[in-house]
């Protein structure tokens, strides 16, 4: 089975088992969430469900609205019942790295506004060591040079993210992404605190103690893991 088939199976399992009528639902970003949004559009139509969603990117918003899914601004809701999102890497104790698609700041704001968070992934996202996926950090353009110097001095191996044309990738908020090529993150909480305290850092892609449920697409079928949070 290829990765896309595994992503689709995790997304469809989440849609069938975790979405209920009258829910306020956060929608993540990425290729796995694309399968979720497709399945959600279908369920809403077939079962005439009333679901209000908040999106974490213009990409997800466009797809959702094209399928007739109601999308509102986060400023118009007090709390979301659940957010379903993808992840780039998950550790054995269910800490996450997100932002491979540069969407982690908005994703973190929406995740924080949610009673529960569920991640849908294919089994490659559980690869070890945690931190082998480069850690995305959203930074203000004005602070870029200073932050690169600081991160280099701390051996965090920073690289400005460029697109296929060699231009800096811009986030939803017009900021830049620096990826930290760390190889392994042994102390994610300490690293998260350090990054958060640097002036000019908007948000980093470590999602710590966030996820309640992980659905992993596997050859044998979707595995649903309760992380006991
Ligand atoms: O910025 C992007 C997000 O954090 C995505 O959730 C993450 O990159 C996973 O994406 P995908 O489902 O495409 O692997």
From TrEMBL:
Signal peptide: none annotated. It comes from Holzapfeliella saturejae. This is Ribose-5-phosphate isomerase A. Homodimer. It holds the Pfam family Rib_5-P_isom_A. Substrate binds at residues 29-32, 85-88, 98-101, 125. One of its GO terms (molecular function) is ribose-5-phosphate isomerase activity. The keyword Isomerase applies. Its EC number is 5.3.1.6. The active site is at residue 107. Catalyzes the reversible conversion of ribose-5-phosphate to ribulose 5-phosphate.
């Amino acid at each position: 089975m290829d990765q896309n088939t595994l992503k689709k199976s995790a997304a469809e399992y989440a849609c069938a088992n975790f979405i209920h009528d009258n829910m306020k639902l956060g929608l993540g970003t990425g290729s796995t969430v694309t399968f979720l949004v497709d399945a959600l559009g279908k369920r809403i139509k077939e079962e005439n469900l009333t679901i209000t969603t908040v999106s974490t990117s213009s990409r997800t918003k466009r797809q959702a609205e094209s399928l007739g899914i109601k999308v509102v601004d986060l400023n118009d809701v007090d709390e979301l019942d659940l957010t379903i999102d993808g992840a780039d890497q998950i550790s054995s104790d269910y800490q996450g790295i997100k932002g491979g698609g540069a969407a982690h700041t908005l994703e973190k704001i929406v995740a924080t506004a949610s009673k529960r968070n569920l991640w849908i992934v294919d089994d490659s996202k559980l690869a070890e060591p945690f931190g082998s996926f480069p850690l995305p950090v959203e930074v203000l353009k004005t602070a870029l040079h200073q932050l690169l110097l600081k991160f280099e001095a701390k051996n965090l191996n920073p690289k400005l993210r460029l697109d296929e044309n060699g231009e800096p990738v811009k986030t939803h908020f017009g900021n830049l992404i620096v990826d930290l090529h760390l190889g392994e993150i042994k102390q994610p909480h300490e690293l998260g605190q350090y990054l958060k305290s640097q002036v000019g850092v908007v948000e980093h892609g470590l999602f710590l103690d966030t996820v309640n449920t992980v659905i992993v697409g596997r050859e044998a079928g979707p595995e649903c893991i309760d992380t006991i949070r």
